[in-house]
Write a structure and sequence with these properties.
Length: about 675
C-alpha cells in the first residue's frame, strides 16, 4: 500500500480523504493557498505544502504548482477530490509521467467522458438508454431550428464542454431555439473556450437520479445502487438521498447494469457516477458521467457500508475489488443536506465572513438514526470569498426513510451556525415539505414550490403551541433564577406567577403553568394541555425539550422580554409576559422599519468592482448602477425604478458589508 498520499484539494473533501487515509495507516499531505493557511485540512494532514495566492487559478488548479508539492513531499499517490483538477486529463497525464499514482480513472476515460458529445455516442454504442437528440456539429441558428423540429419541442441546447448549468437553454419553439443557440454558443465560448453545441429532447418533469459505480483495473465492475438528486437550485444539488423513493428494483438493476457497461466500455477503474434523467414512467436517459468522487457520496456509503475513498485508493494501488455485485445491499435510508454560506432570505446570495459560532450536531446515534457531518471548517474560521461556499454536508441514516427524515430534522435544529448567512432554515423547510415527505419531487421542486424565493417558514397552530409551551416553561426557569438574586431587602421576596401570555408569529396565547420536579404542564385558554420537560439553563443557546413525549430542539437567543427561536426552518421572536405586561404591550405603537426605498444597499458582503453612474445622473428602471463581486461571481445591481442619483457612498475597490449604503436617490 502507499505510504503517503497528497490531497490536491481543500475544504471538506480534503478532510474526508484524510480521515480514510489515516484509517488505512497512510500519511497525508495537504496543499494550501494563502487564504487556507489556517484551514482544517491543513491541520489534519501529516504535512502541508504552500502552493500560492488565494485565487484558485493561481494555486489549486495550477498543475505545475501541485506537481512541485508532490515532488517536495515525496507523495506516491494523489487524490484529487472533486472540482479543481479532479477531471483534468492533463493533470492525470502529468502524474503518470512523474510515476505518481492518480487516485482516479485512466486518462482515456476522463477524456472520453469529459466531452458530452463523445460520451453520449459511447453510451449509445454501449447500449445505454440516451435522450433523443443530435450529436453532430451545428453550424448556425437555422440548422438548430431544423434539428429542434425533427426532435420535437421542447428541446435542450447544451454546450458540449459545459457544466454547472452554463451554456444551457431550453427552447419551446423556433424563436427560442434560434435565440438559445446563439446565447449558449456565446456562453460556452466565454466559459469553456469551446463553443460546440448539441441539442437533445428536454424531458419535462424529470427526476435526476445517479448510479454509483466502482471498477478496478482487472475488468471487474459493480454498481452501488442509486442516489436521488432531484432537489436542485440553478442546476446545483441541495438535497440528496439514497436510495431513491421512486425507483423499483427492476429499474434500479437496469440502470446499474447499463452504468457498469458504460464504465467498462471506456476502461474505467475507480469510483465514478453515471447520471440519468428519469421521467414519470421510469424511462431513464443517460445525462453524463462524472469521472470522480461525487459530493454526495456519503449517502451511498451509509446504506452500503462501503468506504468509497478506501476503494479508490486500493484500486489506484492495483488491487482487485474485494466485493462483488451480490455483496451490495441496501441497508436503511440516508439523506444529505448541503449547508452553504448563502442567505436564503436574500435570494441565496453568498455570505462570507467569520464563523463566530459553529457547533454541528454530535456525530453518531441520534434517536433511532445516525448523524454524520462532513465538514472543512471550524468555529472562528473564515468562509472565504475565493472558493465554493459549502460549509458542511450533514447526513443522516435511519432504518427507513421516515426515520432518516426525522433524524435530519432534529440534527438541523441542533446545528448552530452564527456570523454568516446560511441555508439551514431553507433545508429545514424542505424536510417538512409535503412533496418531499411523499417522495414525489422533480428537478423543478424549488422553482415550483418557492417561485418567489424563500421568506421563512410559518408554523402551523399545533407546532406553534408546542413552541409557545416550551418557551413558557423556559421563561419560568429564567424567572426563578432572577427571583433568587442575592442582596434583596427583607420582606421583598419576588413571587413567580403561574399565569403568562406568550406572543409569537402574530398570535398570542394565555397560558397557566403548573410545575413540578419533573417538568411543567402548560394549559392553554382553550383547555389544551402540553407536558414540557427538558434540559435548558438560562444562557444555553440550544434547548432540547420534550413536549408531550415528542422531541423539540430549538436554537435560542435572548431578546428583551423573551427569546429569539429557530426551529424547523422558522425564525421566531417569542415574548413571554405577565397578563398586565401583555395588556400594556398591545397599546404600544408598532415600530416600523427604516425607509430605505431611496437607497441602494449592498445585498451581500463583497467588493465594488465598478460604479456605472455619478451623482446627478438620471437613471431608468433596469439600468445598471454598479457591480459587486462576491465568491468570484460578479453581480450587477440595477435600478428598480426611474430616479436621480443624489449621492455616491462607495467606489470601485471598496469592501462592503451587507446593507451598507452604496448610493442614494432623490
Amino acid at each position: 500500500m502507499f505510504d503517503k498520499i497528497l490531497i490536491a484539494n481543500r475544504g471538506e473533501i480534503a478532510c474526508r480523504v484524510i480521515k480514510t487515509a489515516h484509517k488505512m495507516g497512510i500519511k497525508t499531505v495537504a496543499i494550501y493557498s494563502d487564504a487556507d493557511k489556517n484551514a482544517l485540512h491543513v491541520e489534519m494532514a501529516d504535512e502541508a505544502v504552500h502552493i500560492g495566492p488565494s485565487p484558485a487559478n493561481q494555486s489549486y488548479i495550477v498543475i505545475d504548482k501541485v506537481m512541485e508539492a508532490i515532488r517536495q513531499s515525496g507523495a506516491q499517490a494523489v487524490h484529487p477530490g472533486y472540482g479543481f483538477l479532479s477531471e483534468n486529463p492533463k493533470f492525470a497525464e502529468a502524474l503518470e509521467a512523474e510515476g505518481v499514482a492518480f487516485v482516479g480513472p485512466p486518462v482515456g476515460a476522463i477524456e472520453k467522458m469529459g466531452d458530452k458529445i463523445t460520451s453520449k455516442k459511447i453510451a449509445q454504442e454501449a447500449g445505454v438508454s440516451t435522450v433523443p437528440g443530435y450529436m453532430g456539429l451545428i453550424e448556425d441558428a437555422d440548422e438548430a431550428v431544423k434539428i429542434s423540429n425533427e426532435i420535437g419541442y421542447p428541446v435542450m441546447l447544451k454546450a458540449s464542454a459545459g457544466g454547472g448549468g452554463k451554456g444551457m437553454r431550453i427552447a419551446w419553439n423556433d424563436d427560442e431555439a434560434r435565440e438559445g443557440f446563439q446565447s449558449s454558443k456565446n456562453e460556452a465560448a466565454s466559459s469553456f473556450g469551446d463553443d460546440r453545441i448539441f441539442i437533445e429532447k428536454f424531458v419535462t418533469q424529470p427526476r435526476h437520479i445517479e448510479i454509483q459505480v466502482l471498477c478496478d483495473a482487472h475488468g471487474n465492475g459493480i454498481y452501488l445502487n442509486e442516489r436521488e438528486c432531484s432537489i436542485q437550485r440553478r442546476n446545483q444539488k441541495v438535497v440528496e438521498e439514497a436510495p431513491s423513493p421512486f425507483l423499483d428494483e427492476a429499474t434500479r438493476r437496469a440502470m446499474g447494469e447499463q452504468s457498469v457497461a458504460l464504465a467498462k466500455a471506456v476502461g474505467y477503474a475507480s469510483a465514478g457516477t453515471v447520471e440519468f434523467i428519469v421521467d414519470g414512467d421510469k424511462n431513464f436517459y443517460f445525462l453524463e458521467m462524472n469521472t470522480r468522487l461525487q459530493v454526495e457520496h456519503p449517502v451511498t456509503e451509509l446504506i452500503t457500508g462501503v468506504d468509497l475513498v478506501e476503494q479508490m485508493i486500493r484500486v489506484a494501488h492495483g488491487e482487485k475489488l474485494s466485493i462483488g455485485q451480490d455483496d451490495v445491499k441496501i441497508n436503511g435510508w440516508a439523506i444529505e443536506n448541503r449547508l452553504y454560506a448563502e442567505d436564503p432570505y436574500r435570494n441565496f446570495l453568498p455570505s462570507i465572513g467569520r464563523l463566530t459560532r459553529y457547533r454541528p450536531p454530535e456525530e453518531g446515534a441520534l434517536g433511532d438514526g445516525i448523524v454524520r457531518n462532513d465538514t472543512g471548517v471550524f468555529e472562528g474560521g473564515e468562509i472565504s470569498m475565493y472558493y465554493d461556499p459549502m460549509i458542511a454536508k450533514l447526513c443522516t441514516w435511519g432504518p427507513d426513510r421516515a426515520t432518516a427524515i426525522e433524524t435530519m430534522r432534529n440534527a438541523l435544529d441542533s446545528f448552530e451556525v452564527e456570523g454568516i448567512g446560511h441555508n439551514l432554515p431553507f433545508v429545514a423547510a424542505v424536510m417538512d415539505h409535503p412533496k418531499f415527505i411523499s417522495g414525489d419531487m422533480t428537478t423543478a421542486f424549488i422553482e415550483e414550490e418557492y417561485p418567489d424565493g424563500f421568506d421563512g417558514v410559518t408554523l402551523d397552530d399545533a407546532d406553534l403551541k408546542r413552541v409557545a409551551a416550551a418557551c413558557a416553561a423556559m421563561n419560568r426557569v429564567a424567572e426563578i433564577r432572577r427571583a433568587r438574586i442575592s442582596g434583596t431587602l427583607d420582606n421583598h421576596e419576588r413571587h413567580v406567577g403561574e399565569n403568562w401570555n406568550v406572543a409569537l408569529q402574530g398570535q398570542d396565547f394565555d397560558v397557566t403553568i403548573a410545575a413540578d420536579k419533573a417538568g411543567s404542564t402548560v394549559r392553554f385558554a382553550d383547555g389544551a394541555e402540553l407536558r414540557v420537560s427538558g434540559d435548558w439553563t438560562p444562557g444555553d443557546q440550544l434547548a432540547r425539550m420534550m413536549v408531550d413525549d415528542a422531541p423539540l430542539v430549538m436554537k435560542v437567543g435572548k431578546v428583551s422580554g423573551g427569546f429569539r427561536i429557530r426551529t424547523r426552518g422558522a425564525e421566531l421572536k417569542v415574548h413571554v409576559r405577565t397578563p398586565r405586561q401583555a395588556e400594556l404591550a398591545r397599546l404600544m405603537p408598532e415600530k416600523l422599519p427604516p425607509d430605505t426605498s431611496k437607497m441602494l444597499l449592498c445585498p451581500m458582503p463583497g467588493l465594488i468592482v465598478k460604479v456605472d453612474v455619478q451623482a446627478g445622473d438620471e437613471v431608468q428602471e433596469g439600468q445598471a448602477l454598479c457591480t459587486v463581486e462576491a465568491m468570484k461571481m460578479e453581480n450587477i445591481l440595477r435600478a428598480e425604478r426611474k430616479g436621480t442619483v443624489s449621492k455616491i457612498n462607495a467606489g470601485a475597490g471598496d469592501s462592503l458589508a451587507v446593507d451598507d449604503i452604496i448610493m442614494e436617490f432623490e
